[in-house]
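Hi L.,

You mentioned the student needs an example of a multi-chain input paired with its predicted structure. This one should do, with 252 residues in total across all chains.
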Amino acid sequence: MSRRLVVGGGLFLPVPLLAALMGWSGWQASLVTWPFSGTRIQVTVTAHMWWWEVRYRDTLTGREAVLANELRLPVGERIYLALASADVLHAFWAPALAGKVDMVPGRLHGLTLRASAPGRFRGQCAEYCGTQHAAMALGVVAVAPQEFDAWLAHQAAPVNAVAHRGREVFLAARCNACHTVRGVSEGGALGPDLTHIASRTHIAAGALPMNRAALIGWIANPQASKPGARMPPSNLSPEDLQALASWLEVLQ
Ligand SMILES: [Cu+2]
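Structure written out for the whole complex:
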């Protein structure tokens, strides 16, 4: 009797039960971390010291867009994120939506997200990555699907290359060595894509609000608001700074 209990309760019961649990948890884990995904919208989020590059691909329309420090999601839709790092170890963490996932140099980690209601959430780097680790925020915005599609179409479009003194300053000061403004100058990839910078609420990964005064202060001396930031100070005249900031402000 006691032998039957030991063999039954100790062997025949737990083995299939544990196997089933293992299979189930493996399947659940693969759903959120599967590296190739059938979702319509695929986003690559690349962590840099100390900002986020966010690259969208709509697999239906072929639209692509690059932005920074902001992640937009259509409510109710599963979105695949490929998480990467350009330098050191970082971690993606948007507590309202998902748990932490490491971002490892040379590797891609996958995460599938679904926002169930519209709203604004805060994301943050969750792995100490140097002096400005704390100033590495990612704004997450969940919006209605139609609004999302219009937003992505807009983000995918280059800017109208209208004549503007600030545009001349941008090129003359070689800001384009590090920054891309699609429609004006491409190839700069050491800093955030500035094509639609004025459509974002913050600059410098949440360190400053997006407005003219903040832009001027930042461009004159990024080190004052974010010591260690990988952008050098500029020695532009007040007029050039004004022109530059007023041009960036119209890049909606
Ligand atoms: Cu960090």
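You could point out the following to them. The chain has three domains: 2-31, 41-145, 165-249. The CA atoms of residues 47 and 75 lie 24 Å apart.

Best wishes,
N.
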